[in-house]
Specification:
alpha+beta; seven-stranded antiparallel β-sheet
Length: about 140
């Protein structure tokens, strides 16, 4: 396992083990669900995350198209919608810290590492944690 510090959190992670599991996962949660909120997220998945976060996911061995779970929290005052979710990976949380890492130039996105996340059947049998995120994206899907 490799180890890194991001903000005040320290994780150990196994990118090769994580990638092997993602190779077996067919689709992300938003694609599996298919409700209108999830369709809205899936349609913007490539732009919902800042480049530095996409790079981090790749470093951890995570396929950015396959979130473990995603949920919609409703609209913000600016008309965008708040989404949250988790990406799972093989690893352990060494230092929990204060949990939040936010880009100074992007107030619409934050993430942190957590061991308090919904269970993942894909990762059962191996030590795993998650990157939890909150992001804000526009509503682009037609209303039902």
């Amino acid at each position: 396992m490799q180890q890194t510090r991001i903000g005040d959190q320290v994780i150990r992670y196994d990118p090769a083990g994580t990638q092997r599991i993602y190779d077996r996962i067919q689709r992300g949660d938003a694609d599996e669900c298919g409700c209108t909120s999830c369709q809205n997220f899936a349609a913007q998945r490539n732009t919902a995350f800042p480049p530095y976060f996409r790079s981090l996911l790749s470093t951890l061995g995570i396929d950015t198209r396959k979130e473990g779970e995603v949920y919609e929290c409703g609209p913000r005052d600016d008309g965008n919608y708040i989404y949250g979710g988790w990406f799972y990976f093989c690893g352990v949380l060494v230092e929990a810290g204060q949990r939040s890492e936010r880009a100074t130039d992007d107030n619409n996105f934050e993430f942190w590492f957590t061991s308090s996340c919904p269970a993942s059947t894909a990762f059962s049998g191996v030590p795993y944690i998650a990157v939890e995120f909150l992001t804000s994206i526009p509503w682009i899907r037609p209303a039902e």
